[in-house]
Design goal:
Elements (H helix, E strand, L loop, with lengths): L1 H25 L4 E13 L3 E12 L2 H21 L7 E11 L14 E12 L5 H11 L3 E8 L3 H27 L1 E13 L11 E2 L15 E15 L4
Antiparallel strand pairs: 1-8, 2-4, 2-5, 3-4, 5-7, 6-8
Amino acid sequence: MKRSRLVALTSLALCTALAAGAGAAELPRTATLTVTGEATVSRAPDRAQVAFSIQTTDADSGKATSANAAIANAIDAKMAQLGLPASAVATTGYGLTYVPRPTKPDPANDQRYGYTVNRSLTVTVDAVDRAGAVVDAGVAAGATNVDGVSFVLRDPHAAQRAAQTAALDDAVAQARGLAAAAGVRLVRILAISPGGAAGARPVPMMRMMTAAAVAVPTTIDPGALRVDADVTVHYEIAPARPI
């Protein structure tokens, strides 16, 4: 009796498992189509950033720092003469190092000995056509180097949104074309994933060394900025005609 009951229970469990497996296999799977749209928009930059560096060296640390500060103040004054506010000039780096003079200096080594002060400044101007004037003013004030000029957008997110919208339009056009070619229809959008850069890329100017005031005014062409975006769209699809 016990053996018969055990066989019956085993058979019932097996039948239940098979039925469950069959039911799972019959569940419809969602067919999908994934496309990625890309777009690029071009915008004229409306902000320039000029990077300067000031290096001073002296056997006395106080004289080295004082000389460096004097040049920085001169740059501030030159920028004020251009009509830029004090907030347009920002110190982005500052350091003081000491290099002892060796007993027998190597003539081939142009290393500076003593205290060296390095200061980095960035001047921001919203009139991009005045970037060259900012460069000349900094050089005239005694900047050791012009480290570069970058042109950017004051509101990079607006340009990014425009690029993303265009990229989404491209993705939708691709999806419609592929669906028509494959004989399916687009049911609904399952997900949208934006990608691409967060803003316009700066356009760097070649680094240039400056040791004296420039006789000929500097002119810099900012050109245009490219803002790229891509958008991936996941669609649910179905046969064009119900089966």
